[in-house]
Design brief:
Layout: E1 2-8, H1 12-23, H2 25-28, E2 32-38, H3 41-51, E3 55-59, H4 67-77, E4 82-87, H5 92-100, E5 105-108, H6 114-159, H7 164-183, H8 189-204, E6 208-214, E7 220-228, E8 237-239, E9 254-255, E10 259-266, E11 269-277, H9 285-326, H10 330-347, H11 352-364, H12 374-384, H13 392-399, H14 421-437, H15 442-448, H16 459-462, H17 465-468
Parallel strand pairs: 1-2, 1-3, 3-4, 4-5
Antiparallel strand pairs: 6-7, 6-11, 7-8, 9-10, 10-11
């Protein structure tokens, strides 16, 4: 990006020195810095109005006119220009004028070091860019508002002319948009299947709907969910090519005596059928096809997500089984540590995602038991699960399990809040569980950590021990 700087200083040597300092920015920054100089107020105003600089370094004591007049002229031309006042004779009057005209900064001669001056100019340039961005956003917002107002006026004018059929079409599209938006929020396949018929009748204003999905057997479809006054129930079997719902190989909608149906498919693979009960007003085939297309994509995505979750859970269970082969007590201990960790997380009001990361890490924290050293075992555990992308955060938690709150731990000597909160929680839960297994009471357990609170353990978490027991 091109950045323009104007130096208005009657001392030619000083002006050249300032220019040399600022030209170093071309080597230090990605932007291109263009610098011009003026040696009087009149020249400064003329160059400034033509050059349109982003930042001006302005001497107040100029031979022909006061620098304050230059400041006023430049600000009248461009309110967002950033002016840094330079003076060896500061006065209350000049300071008040500078503030009134919104000068960026006010520095006295002799000028500060080159690094200080460059940093000051870069901050002024950043402020300039922020103001320009703000102005552009306001312009765009104004244009959008004008366009919306115009569109709204046009819509109002048109609405008074359209017939009832067009009004119904607009309402239909509005329901369809809401239907599509709500579908995107579903990741739970079972919940989605339950809700699909309900959402379908909201869009079509129908009295009933049936969702039929393909089972593992190629020749069999099953009613999975219904709503309203329909002639089928969940669990009913539908055979392919059997009237009225089995025409799953159709390329588009078809009608029966009571229903309008459309096949559900993804990438040519049949998924099922959506059937909407007919009503007095005709339901357009285009609407049914749009509903079916959105349903097909959402069902496919939810199915993949469901399988992915199942795969992840199987992976976690497999890892726990690996632990148990090395030490039969690890599985039960890991489960107890996981439960304690989740209690801490609940008290600290963690999100569901963060609690899942902690839960996985706690369940797997004993994977590295093949090592004799605690720190090594946590690192080994983190390496074992590294291929599993969904355990990325859990891996970080495991890696730093034996960091100490005062920074004396390993592997990286992290201190305080820099240690992942999940690591701090599981570390403490692990030790609490050991004392519970020794039949210590809550008072004894809480007291056992007083000496190490703030050194080994996070004081904020140790205070919660009694609350989780």
């Amino acid at each position: 990006m091109e950045r323009k700087i104007l130096i208005i200083e009657d001392g030619e040597n000083l002006a050249q020195l300032i220019e040399d300092m600022l030209l170093e920015l071309n080597e230090e920054e990605d932007d291109e810095f263009i610098i011009k100089k003026a040696y009087s107020a009149s020249e400064g105003i003329s160059v400034g109005l033509d050059f349109k600089p982003d930042v001006v370094l302005l001497d107040l004591q100029l031979p022909d006119r006061p620098g304050t007049e230059v400041l006023t002229k430049l600000k009248q031309d461009d309110r967002d220009i950033q002016v840094i006042i330079m003076t060896g004779h500061a006065s209350l009057e000049s300071a008040v004028h500078s503030v009134r005209e919104e000068a960026y900064d006010y520095i006295q001669k002799p000028l500060p070091s080159g690094d200080h001056l460059k940093a000051l100019v870069k901050r002024a340039l950043d402020r300039r860019q922020l103001l320009l961005d703000k102005t552009q956003l306001l312009i765009e917002l104004s244009e959008v508002n004008e366009a919306l107002e115009e569109a709204n006026r046009a819509l109002q004018d048109e609405k008074s002319l359209v017939n009832k059929k067009l009004e119904n079409k607009i309402l239909e599209l509005s329901h369809l948009n809401e239907f599509t938006r709500e579908l995107l929020q579903y990741h739970d396949l079972a919940k989605m299947i339950e809700e699909i018929p309900k959402k379908a009748i909201e869009v079509t204003q129908s009295d009933g709907a049936v969702l039929i999905l393909k089972e593992l057997e190629d020749k069999k479809y099953t009613v999975h969910s219904t709503v309203g006054d329909v002639s089928f129930s969940p669990g009913d079997d539908i055979k392919i090519n059997e009237e009225p719902f089995g025409l799953v190989n159709n390329k588009g909608p078809w009608a029966t005596e009571d229903y309008i149906c459309c096949p559900l498919s993804f990438m040519g693979k049949p998924l099922g059928v959506i059937a909407i009960k007919k009503k007095e007003e005709e339901i357009s085939p285009e609407l049914i096809e749009t509903i079916a297309a959105n349903l097909s994509i959402s069902l496919h995505d939810a199915t993949l997500y469901d399988r992915l979750k199942a795969s992840y859970l199987e992976s976690v269970l497999s890892l726990i089984m690996v632990e148990e082969t090395a030490d039969p007590n690890i599985k039960e201990h890991s489960q107890r540590v996981s439960n304690l960790s989740l209690k801490f997380a609940d008290l600290l009001e963690f999100s569901v995602k963060d609690k899942n990361d902690i839960r996985y890490a706690a369940l797997l924290h004993g994977l590295g038991k093949i090592s004799q050293e605690k720190v090594d075992s946590s690192i080994i555990a983190s390496k074992i699960i590294s291929p599993f992308k969904f355990l990325k955060n859990s891996r970080i938690i495991l890696k730093h399990l034996y960091e100490n709150f005062d920074g004396s731990g390993k592997p990286e000597g992290l201190k305080g809040e820099k240690i992942p909160i999940g690591s701090r929680i599981i570390r403490l839960s692990h030790e609490v569980e050991k004392l519970i297994s020794e039949n210590k009471n809550p008072e004894e357990i809480s007291k056992a950590f007083e000496g190490d609170s703030g050194t080994l353990y996070d004081p904020k978490i140790t205070k919660l021990i009694k609350d989780i027991l």
